[in-house]
Amino acid sequence: MNAEKANIPNSVDATEIPECVFESLARSLLPVIQKYYESEDSKKAFAEWKAKKEISDSAST
To answer: pTM of the prediction?
Structure first.
């Protein structure tokens, strides 16, 4: 069963979503995102990504 048969829209126009919904979502997600980026695991993952990126950037130039 596809979206057309079920009358389910397959895209959402962001202008139809009230700003308060975006603000509420941002307020609920921000503490979780901040906690993740402050963790040692995320700092280690970022350092590994950065090192790989520097290697690939230097190899491509």
So the answer is: 0.52
